[in-house]
Specification:
The complex is a heterodimer of chains A (about 300) and B (about 325). Chain A has one domain: 3-Layer(aba) Sandwich (Aldehyde Dehydrogenase, Chain A, domain 1), CATH 3.40.605.10. Chain A has about 300 residues and is α/β, with parallel strands linked by helices. Chain A is globular. Chain A is built from ten helices and twelve strands. The longest helix of chain A has 21 residues. Chain A has a five-stranded parallel β-sheet, with helices on both faces. In chain A, strands 3-4-12 form a three-stranded antiparallel β-sheet. With about 325 residues, chain B is α/β, with parallel strands linked by helices. Chain B has a single domain, classed as Aldolase class I (TIM Barrel), CATH 3.20.20.70. Chain B is about 50% helix and about 10% strand. Chain B has an eight-stranded parallel β-sheet. In chain B, α10 links the parallel β5 and β6. The longest helix of chain B is centred in the last third of the chain and has 18 residues. Classes of the chains: A alpha/beta (about 300), B alpha/beta (about 325). Chain A: This is Aldehyde dehydrogenase. Chain A: Keywords: Oxidoreductase. Chain A: It comes from Terrabacter tumescens.
Chain lengths: ~300, ~325
């Protein structure tokens, strides 16, 4: 007698907990070849609202930890990712239609990317900050500080490497994040939320919402309690106008990280390329302090 | 602007009225006990079930906008901390005068609620805006002081210009069955209030049972309270839906019995718009729409106003608002 399949229905990840969508909806996630994989919760605008509340609540604690400590936590995430690499490889292979070998390479790159950003946490201030020369008896110091709550539209096609490549730079500098996953390939993000919940990342620092991008993106872009938004995930999303989102974001002068454009059309960046500091720099604010020199 | 008409009542008047209601020739503790213990008992499961059921209503769009504005107008904006300063009270008054600088159509709360020594400050800051000043008195929050001190506390606040007095009952006397003492204290404080409006705080968190809440409600109304109020906000649990349900039933039945309408004020622990709307639904369903005005229903709250303002901004602008758009109290 053959064993019954355990058909999973995944939930959201908000404030360190795994709630169902407020709307009660879910949708079928299928593989690149159209086979049923699992059910995912279909997040609504109210889930976004709850996630922003959780992210705002977690901000003071996370931005207040030492950069060194944030590096340790990110490294711990990489360790737990490594421990579940088989599951990630399977999900990446089925979601993105890759061979087992190619999927393994993606998981390797994703883990390495997290380790890379883990190393950056306590070096951001050295590179982006400065002791400015001024004409007077003052120390003049510029230092980067986290922007605050960052909304992220995660890339639609690179479901794991792209995902960690947009989340890690945001939280490395002390921001908290509300992530809207790839609509058609959400499973690696769901598993990543299980990783985050079992590593040392405090609840609310990363909130992951599986949803139709077009439905929730406007609410996230217009939300007055969100300080920045990363529009990477508009590339390949149905019915999303990134310029309209940027206009909504102007309502409270959010920082906007635009999608990569090719002839004016958003495209997904090459995630295997050296990420550089662009994404870290996009979500920090420079604070400059004048201090009198002792004479 | 809230219009509250209050008649001066002497303790003798109130005792005479109580004799009529009870149908006795002399008001004794025995008579009060028989009357209060003759009230029907509260069905705990039924009461909690009904409170929970009334909390499930979905109130949206124009109804929600009306509910938010009504709730803002019912707030007694409160600061009752040992660390209160003149500056803090003034800034709270400024907030009451202009709750949301981004939207001048926002209604004002009904009153500012402070300790007695801050009444003059609040009165000066509010001027002729029509926003009332409520003062807590009678050795708030414990109520443990001699009657002379409680009356002096009350007169002091009234002389400083308080429009409303929030008194606490002697829970020790109530729980030990000394209802006559509680009655006399309320009646004497009512007399000391003169034309000021008297709210009687029963501190339901210390009354243990729902039956006691019902008895305390009737006793407070009998002794001349213009409002019955759940809690000081200093004891947990503070205001809850089931307790407020019992109080709303009591004021409804009291009007049927005597023709006198008494107000209700839940206080403490009401922090969100959702909570406030649940209370409004309950007021309408249990007591009736006659109570849906600041004259007869108030919220004792501080952080509730900010949440109502955020929800109001969401309805006006269409985008979720955040803490950057309201004041830090």
């Amino acid at each position: 007698m053959s064993r019954l399949d355990v058909r999973k229905t995944y939930k959201l990840y908000i404030g360190g907990k795994f709630p169902r969508s407020e709307s009660g909806r879910s949708y079928e996630v299928v593989s690149a070849t159209g086979e049923f994989l699992a059910n995912a919760a279909m997040g609504s605008r109210k889930d976004v609202r709850d996630a922003v509340v959780a992210a705002r609540g977690a901000l003071a604690g996370w931005s207040g930890t030492t950069a060194y400590n944030r590096g340790q936590v990110l490294y711990r995430v990489a360790e737990v990712l490594e421990g579940r690499r088989a599951q990630f490889a399977l999900e990446v292979a089925s979601s993105e239609g890759l061979s087992a070998r190619a999927a393994n390479a993606v998981v390797d790159a994703a883990i390495d990317r997290v380790v890379w950003y883990a190393g950056w946490t306590d070096k951001i201030a050295q590179v982006l900050g400065n002791l400015n020369p001024v004409a007077g008896p003052f120390f003049n110091v510029s230092a980067p500080e986290p922007t605050g709550v960052v909304g992220i539209l995660a890339p639609q096609s690179s479901s794991l490497l792209g995902l960690v490549s947009v989340i890690a730079p945001v939280i490395a500098s002390g921001n908290t994040a509300v992530v809207v996953t790839s609509a058609s390939r959400p499973l690696p993000a769901v598993t990543l939320s299980e990783v985050l919940a079992t590593s040392d990342v405090p609840g609310g620092v990363v909130n992951i919402i599986t949803a139709q991008t077009a439905e929730v993106a406007t609410w996230l872009a217009a939300h007055r309690d969100v300080n920045a938004i990363d529009l990477t995930g508009v590339a390949g999303a149905d019915g999303v106008d990134w310029a309209a989102l940027e206009a909504e974001a102007a309502g409270n002068l959010k920082r906007v990280h635009r999608p990569t454009l090719l002839d004016g059309v958003p495209v997904e960046p090459d995630w295997t390329a050296d990420p550089g500091l662009t994404r870290i720099r996009a979500f920090v604010e420079t604070k400059t302090v004048w201090h009198p020199k002792g004479l | 602007m809230v219009t509250v008409s209050t008649t001066t009542r002497t303790a003798q008047d109130l005792t005479a009225q109580a004799r009529d209601v009870l149908g006795v020739s002399r008001l004794t503790n025995h008579a009060l006990t028989s009357w209060l213990h003759g009230l029907p008992g509260v069905d705990q499961v039924g009461c909690e079930g009904r409170a929970a059921a009334l909390g499930t209503r979905s109130v949206k769009t124009t109804s929600k906008a009306w509910a938010i504005d009504t709730a803002i107008g019912m707030i007694d904006l409160t600061t009752l901390e040992g660390s209160d300063t003149v500056g803090k009270v003034r800034s709270l008054c400024a907030k009451a005068l202009v709750p949301d600088p981004l939207d001048p159509t926002t209604p004002r709360p009904a009153a500012i609620c402070v300790y007695g020594d801050m009444v003059a400050t609040a009165k000066a800051a509010l001027g002729d805006s029509g926003i009332h000043v409520a003062a807590v008195a009678t050795a708030f929050p414990s109520g443990r002081a001699s009657m002379a001190v409680k009356l002096a506390d009350t007169r002091d606040a009234v002389e400083a210009g308080a429009d409303e007095i929030d008194m606490v009952i002697d829970r020790g006397a109530f729980l030990s069955g000394d209802y006559l003492t509680v009655f006399n204290q309320i009646a004497e404080v009512k007399q000391a209030c003169g034309t000021a409006h008297l709210k009687v705080i029963m501190e339901t968190g210390e009354l243990v049972t729902y039956d006691n809440v019902r008895r305390a409600s009737y006793l407070s109304m009998l002794a001349g309270g213009d409002f019955i109020k759940t809690s000081t906000g200093k004891v947990q649990p503070a205001a809850t839906l089931p307790v407020t349900l019992i109080m709303l039933e009591a004021v409804r039945d009291w009007r049927d019995l005597t023709g006198i309408q008494v107000g209700v004020k839940p206080a403490g622990g009401i922090k969100t718009t959702k909570d406030a709307i649940k209370y409004l639904v309950m007021v309408s369903e249990v007591a009736g729409d006659d109570w849906l005005s600041p004259e007869w229903f108030r919220f004792g709250a501080s952080s509730l106003l900010n949440d109502l303002l955020l929800q109001r901004q969401k309805l006006t602008t269409g985008a979720y608002s955040g803490a950057d758009y309201v004041t830090i109290d």
